[in-house]
Amino acid sequence: xxxxxxxxxxxxxxxxxxxxxxxxxxxxxxxxxxxxxxxxxxxxxxxxxxxxxxxxxxxxxxxxxxxxxxxxxxxxxxxxxxxxxxxxxxxxxxxxxxxxxxxxxxxxxxxxxxxxxxxxxxxxxxxxxxxxxxxxxxxxxxxxxxxxxxxxxxxxxxxxxxxxxxxxxxxxxxxxxxxxxxxxxxxxxxxxxxxxxxxxxxxxxxxxxxxxxxxxxxxxxxxxxxxxxxxxxxxxxxxxxxxxxxxxxxxxxxxxxxxxxxxxxxxxxxxxxxxxxxxxxxxxxxxxxxxxxxxxxxxxxxxxxxxxxxxxxxx
Length: 315
Description:
Layout: H1 2-26, H2 33-38, H3 45-60, H4 78-95, E1 127-128, E2 131-136, E3 143-146, E4 156-158, E5 163-168, E6 173-178, E7 181-188, E8 194-199, H5 211-216, E9 220-225, E10 232-237, E11 240-247, E12 253-259, H6 265-275, E13 285-295, E14 301-310
Helix pairs in contact: 1-4
C-alpha cells in the first residue's frame, strides 16, 4: 500500500511539473492556475477534466499553487514547446502500457531419433534377370527382397550374417526391406550368350590339306561366354568331333573341335560320291559346322559356325 501511495504522488508531481513548464513556455505571464484549469478554450476537455480533478484534490489538502511568472518574458520558446509536446506523447503511451505476461515456456517434446541402418546388401552384389542370384546379408537385421509388383510377400528373406539363393525373371529392380527402412536395387539384364570360334592350327593353310590329319588334331576351339553357363543348352551340327566342355579360369565353357568324315580312304571316296557338290573352284572341299546355344530360362538363342577345308584323305 505504501508503494502505491508513493507512485500516486510521483504521478501527481510529474503532471504538475509538465503543466507549469507548459504554462511558462506558452504564456510567459502571471497566471491564475485555477482559472486556467477551468477555461475550456485553453485546453482540451479531457486534459481540463484531469487537471481539475488533480487541483481540487491538492486544494482540499490546503496546498496553494499561486505561481508568479516574470512578466518580462514575452517570447514563446518554440524549441521547448516541441520538446514538451513530444514528452506528452510519450507519457500518454506509457500511462496505458501494461507489460506483457511472459508466455509459459513449452517443454520441448523429446523426439526419439531413429537410427538409420546401413544397407545389409553390399553395393558390390549384382542381381541379374532370368537366372538365380545370391543375396548376402552383412547386417544385423533380417533383409527381405521383394518384387515391386508384390510388396506383401518376399521373394526371399535372408537372416543376418547368412546368404540365400533365389531366382528372378523379368524384374528391372527389386525392393530391399530391412528394419523400418527400404531401398530399391536395380536388376541387370541377362545378356545373351557369346560364342567365339578360333582356328588353332595352320594345317588348312597348305595347298594340300588332308582329312586324316584334320581328324587327328584339334582344329577349332569354341569358347562360350555367359554369366550363368550352367543354364545353357549347347548343341552342334556338321561333320565334326567335339570334346568338352571344360571351364577356363573365367568360368567360360571350352569345346575342342576336329573334323569327322571318314575313317578310311574307301569311306572317304564314298563320302565324295555323295557330296561332290561341296568342292570349291580352287579344288578344295568345304564343309560347315555350327554351335547352337540356348539359355533355357531367358530363351535367348545364339548360333555361330565356321568351315573346314581339305583336298584329299591322306598323303
